Amino acid sequence: GGKTYKFTSPAQRGVSDRIACLPNGQTWFVELKTKGGKLSELQKVFANTVLELNQKYTCLWTKEQIDEWIKTLPR
Quick one: average pLDDT of 4-32? Predict the structure, then answer.
């Protein structure tokens, strides 16, 4: 029921791949990885920064993880 946007920031490396805007007003920063993929150091810094700012962040590796994450979101 929400919208996701592919996000790139030429001036800031390490930002999440997607921004998910949900109908309940939540905004999530979502990093998508292939199975076995790893977060770069800059991606880890970004994740820690947004979490310290009390923002929502998740990193997902598989389609199954995406489906499970969606089920946990408030409706």
Answer: 93
